[in-house]
Amino acid sequence: MMRESLEKRKKRASQAIRLLRKAIPEHKIALHFRNPLELLVATILSAQCTDKRVNMVTPALFRKYKTANDYAEADLKTFEQEIRSTGFYKAKAKSITNCAKELAKRFSGKVPNRMEDLATLPGVGRKTANVILGNAFGIPGIVVDTHMKRVSFRLGFTDKTDPEKIEFDLNEIIPQKDWVEFSHLMIWHGRLTCFARKPNCKTCSINKICPSREDI
Ligand code: SF4
């Protein structure tokens, strides 16, 4: 598939954006947050968990913990229980409190707005960093999560499996101004239609430009 020319891939990518915008008019980030710190916490909690479940847990959490220091000084056992329903709560509690300690120590308690700083925080990889940059700071980045990985591969926008390499392949074919929106569109498309098992190719709004469509 990647033998297809760059120009053709760019063209299909722009068609995909246009069609998906129409098919999924409500495609904003589903996590609720009011500032970069809240988004950072919500994003860490969203690993292996639905955004809906995270949104049920965060209102009480955000009322109690307002600053990086609040999280840094949280009682770990109490905090674990407060986020328990999001799953993997021990690891997530550790990530969030350790992350907050680093924020307090190295960034005056503020969430940094540069990839090279964000990626040094415990529990924060390029994926989480791009979510924060794009949605809290308006700095473009493509988020490669499990949906983006699967859907962009099926669409022939990448032939890689490593998330960072996928991100760079996508950076090449999507205009920078569309990186954040493209991320939302593809993630929603993966959730709603292009399922891991049995993608719904029949009703898929981009089946005409997809080389992997199943018999329709
Ligand atoms: S046609 Fe099928 S495989 Fe291709 S994007 Fe649509 S749902 Fe996914």
Would you mind describing this structure in some detail?
- The chain has eleven helices and no strands.
- The protein is an all-alpha fold and 216 residues long.
- The chain has two domains: 91 residues, Endonuclease Iii, domain 2, CATH 1.10.1670; 101 residues, Orthogonal Bundle (Endonuclease III, domain 1), CATH 1.10.340.30.
- Helix 5 packs across helix 6.
- The radius of gyration is 18 Å and the shape is elongated.
- Iron/sulfur cluster binds next to helix 9.
Distance between the termini: 20 Å
The shape, in one word, is elongated
Q: Return the CATH class of the largest domain.
A: Mainly Alpha
Number of strands: 0
* Share of helix, binned: 55-70%
Order of helical and strand elements = HHHHHHHHHHH
Number of helices: 11
Give the low-pLDDT segments.
none
Radius of gyration: 18 Å
Q: How many domains make up the 3D coordinates?
A: 2
CATH fold-level name of the largest domain: Endonuclease III, domain 1
Average pLDDT works out at: 96
